[in-house]
Amino acid sequence: MPYAIRTAVLVGASCLTMAGATEAQSTPNLEGIWILPQTAPADPRWQIEDFLCNGAFCSVAAIDYMKRLLADPANDVRTLKDISGQISVYGRNYVKSLFTAAELEASKGFEQRDDPVNKCVPSGFNFADASLPIKITQFKDRVLIHYEFWSSERVVYTDGRDHRANIAASRLGDSIGWYDGSSLIVETVAIAPHLTYWADGARSSIKARAYERYSRSEDGSRLIVEKTLVDPVMLRRPLTSRESRLSAPNVQIMQFQCDTRYVEGFLPKQ
Amino acid sequence: MTGRYSLALLLMVLAWPVFAHHNAASHYQLDKSITVEGVVTSFRMVNPHVLVYLDAKSPSGDIQHWIAEGNSVGVLERVGWKADSLKSGEKVKIVGRPSRDGSNLVLWTTITKENGTILYGGVAVSAFGEEGVSPEEHQRLEDLRKRQIEERSQSGQQPPPGSPPQK
To answer: Are A115 and B27 an interchain contact pair (Cβ–Cβ within 8 Å)?
Structure first.
């Protein structure tokens, strides 16, 4: 199964970026600070699509749907609010269609006060970046991904090693990576089960794996991050999301510390 | 010194509400809007989400304690918020999304002060036509869309086969 998934990710690579064919032997430079619209909404480089569907909860299916909507002149007279609503409904229904029946049932009882973040427990792997800035630093044998969110850092080993045996599950899991043309592919296992926020109380299982592809846009100004979550307990089919982040070397990565006063705000009233 | 609140079901949907630590849809009813008018009792510029505490008067006249949840400190500071952007005792009108579990929580989109100043940045920069986007920002988005349409028109590009139907 893992091999099949890896193959699928690799096939996807050639579709995602045309540059891969010509840069097959070089290591792509993915370093920098990369942002989504909420960090600098007035940046003139953003396109309309970035405001409609771009981030951890935009499935590739929803993005494709959005593009078809925007390309159809029949929709030119519609308001953006109207179009965005249609995309949103489509996206939610699409994601729900991927959940297993057991997961749909299990997630029904979720209440927002049950969210561990309310107790300053960081969101899990599926929402590690939280749409906040990330910083990527590449070394010969590893890649560091620094998330502003929760000031966390993730190490992706690129020296050819395999996953560590019998490693305990953790928030960001165990990641190994390899370069494929102009992309960095990352495989992550041992991901601690967590609320994925894809819908209600949907939780990943201990069997979850993730495959990510990091590549630059053709003009180099963007980092495209595709993340595929594979979880036979939660999902009937893999779920792929896509972010398109702008290079923002002047953005300062801020410290993120959960404040206990936030926690107090969600304590049950006496 | 207390305000009031009202709940209105609106036929509106956010695109993809960008929120600092979770998917807002899992906590709030994004297809509904609520207005809470009250007096700020505390403003907490904290992570993971900035919080505004306020007292509001219910339709029956009781004083009810509310919490309005916004974005993270980093997001709000980058669009100009400061620790003293709101002060205890200020009268405010908060518009946002009601909680899913019926508790007195609101995901704010705008906060209007008594002098008419509107504070943005609560929820989403991705919400078109929503009250969470300033008029200037909304105009910029409309301009982006207009330019996209013009460019497509000039290129003579045909709509893709199988375009999704309108609602």
So the answer is: yes
Long-range contacts formed by B117-123: CB under 8 A, 24+ apart? B119/B81, B119/B85, B119/B86, B120/B79, B121/B70, B121/B71, B121/B75, B121/B76, B121/B79, B121/B80, B121/B81, B122/B68, B122/B70, B122/B71, B122/B96, B123/B14, B123/B17, B123/B18, B123/B19, B123/B24, B123/B70, B123/B71, B123/B96, B123/B97
Q: Which residues of A touch B165 (CB under 8 A)?
A: none
Confidence of residue B10 (pLDDT cuts 50, 70, 90): very low
* A206-227 pLDDT tens trace: 999 999 999 999 999 999 999 9
For the entire predicted model, the pTM comes to 0.86
Query: Shortest CB distance from B18 goes to which of A75, A86, A131?
Result: A131
d(CA B8, nearest CA chain A) in Å: 18
B130/A contact by beta carbon, under 8 A:
yes
